[in-house]
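Predict the 3D structure for this chain.
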Amino acid sequence: MSPISRRSLLISSALLPQLLRAVDPSKLKISITSDEVDADLDIAVAFLKRFNLSWVEIRNLSGKYNTSQPVEMIRGARKTLDAAGVRTAIVDTGFFKVRLPADDAEGRRKLDEQWALLDRAFVRAEILGTDKIRTFAFTHARGEQPDPAHYPRIYELVAESARRAKKRGFRLALENVGGSYVATAEQASKLLAAVQEEALGLTWDPNNSAGSGDPEPFPAGFEKLDAARIIHVHLRDYRRIPGGGAEWCGVGEGEFDHVGQIRALLKAGYKEAFSLETHYKIDGSKAKASEFSMTALLDRFRKA
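Done. Predicted structure below.
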């Protein structure tokens, strides 16, 4: 064997494990929140097809939460998705993204409104063909810190919501979000430990965790979580801002380690959707920002 051919073989052998480990984005459930592209679902679907993607996250349709739109519109959305070969990864709701109601008659009335919202979400998720519904864990006043005394009641209400979901054949993917009692990885970890309901999982948003003061959402924050209970993931990018918090930016323009997070999730056996939630604009355009971030995100999947 000549030195050149032997050297080529050695190089190829060294690279083979990396090639075998390379992620093919087409084999994964990569999606985007449709209204992060446009309020018009047809435009969002066209965006997905340009990127050869076949999963979508449904939050707003024609400018309103899907749970506030008539069932006829939801059926029309399903026809649009079916015609394009696009499937719904998750249906988003504002369920429990409200101040924790008081434990009195008025509070019970407000809770009844939330239970009615969840029932509407069940109907819409069934029409759209998904068993996953995005929810939250109540909010506190801006500028305040969560009151530890409220967590037992929050956990019980979240557990009740999961029990209702299970009876209807759905899973709740509770999102950690700023201003909520579950905003960071640590808070999400505690909730998952306290609420062991089978139908409850986590929408893991590492950027929200960073924006809520988490000094290192990945790897340290992620390592606090029970990865087996992560059933949806939001991705974008962030930059720390003076005085605390974070601002959203294009994928690759901020601090988040997308490649490391993707690898860690796949290593943990994650098989659910990775969803781009753009949350910023380029020249006033959500579509331009989503185009930029999706292009960069797919590149990071290939590198993972």
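Residues 1-20 have pLDDT under 50 and may be disordered.
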